[in-house]
Amino acid sequence: MNPRILGRAGAYLALLAGAVVSLVPFYWMAVASTHDTADLFGSPPPFLPGGALMDNLSRLQSEHHFGRVVANSLGVAVVYTVLSSLISAMCGYGLAKYRFRGRGVLLGAVLATMMIPMQVLLVPLFQMMANLGWTDTYQAVVLPFLANAFGIFLMRQAFLAFPDELIESARIDGAGDLRIFYQVVLPGVRPQLGALVIFTFMSQWNSFIWPLLMLNTEDKFTVPIALNQMIGLSHVDYSGLMLGSFAATVPIMIVFFVFQRQFVAGLLGGAVKG
């Protein structure tokens, strides 16, 4: 048999095996969400869906108001993603296409913030939010981290590859800076913008420490905080925890499938020259 065919078949088998291994935890999470907690510790453990899905869902809703929690997380994540992506794109565009004194120093300062551990910022940020009277509010969760250094750098690199000639042509035609940015430049970096949207949404959706410090009212909890509430000192609702965790992955999967083409193109955009 042709060695190239054997090599390609081996590569496909390796990818298939990797995909199966990656999907096993999700399958177990889905199966566990349809069983009682006692069934999960049986011998052997269940490998097929059970009949306790509706009971688990009803308990999750009655005890933790999970529908409201998902809506809270979705609202916070969407607002944060839109604002943070817009700010990152505008800052990246300014650093890439505008010439001004200290531009390199400013870029270096932005990148240096990526080396500051999150734990160092918690106390001063908490004091700042308390002084503003923003504790237990969503603006305290969203606003402090809108200017994302990774997003700014990613968009700057994308804008550097955008032809200056198109911008100059738009200026000659009488377009202003905002119109050039929104109608000429931004559509040209949709792959990188799509990748940024996915990363930003995932980071906010999975954020735990900062929302836990800021939000005190149960009706305002986000998904990670609500899942943490299911882990007690003497009892853990494993079936409810698995169902909540599985439900929490659905929005991320939807966002990825919507932006997957832009995500892949954004990751590969810097690997192709010419």
Automatic annotation (TrEMBL):
Residues 70-259 form the ABC transmembrane type-1 domain. The chain crosses the membrane at residues 12-30, 69-93, 105-126, 138-155, 193-213, 238-259. Its main location: membrane. Keywords: Cell membrane, Membrane, Transmembrane, Transmembrane helix, Transport. It is a multi-pass membrane protein. It is found in: Cell membrane. InterPro entries: MetI-like (IPR000515), MetI-like_sf (IPR035906). The keyword Transport applies. It holds the Pfam family BPD_transp_1. SUPFAM superfamilies: MetI-like. Belongs to the binding-protein-dependent transport system permease family. This is Carbohydrate ABC transporter permease.
